[in-house]
Amino acid sequence: MRLPQAPMRHVFVCFVLALSVLEAGLVACGAPGSAVAVGPPVFVLNFHHAEQGRSDQRPGDLVLSEFSAMTKVVWRTWGPTRATGSGKLTGVWCLPHCASRPYDATVTLSNVLAVRGKGYFTRYRVVADIPEEERRQADLAGVLPTP
User: Fold this and answer.
1) Which residues constitute the domain of residue 19?
2) Number of domains comprising the chain
3) What's the superkingdom here (predicted)?
């Protein structure tokens, strides 16, 4: 394939670069050395130690619902359409034993909704190896609140 001539070559290269990094949430075209974020910043409304909730990004501890929470979360990805992290899962459905021995788990946040100029994750799904008798009661998927 032959590349277009000078001005069109820049547009073509930028287009190819934009496609290759779109998944990461950045577009690498424009002035040399610049990057432009795609969409609004993405947050999760977190009630961990915040009764009214707070807009949070990559929280280490996250309340998923009134029944489940994640602690010691290390985020592998964050936005623009989903976030994935691994940490420890606990909940009222597994007390008292999981308070001292929480389950290893991976949480995925998704379904971004724009609220007051910010994006908020509105769904969560947890994957964890928990006993079948607790799995039926566990809160492993659901809706996250927004402001």
Assistant:
1) 6-37
2) 2
3) Bacteria
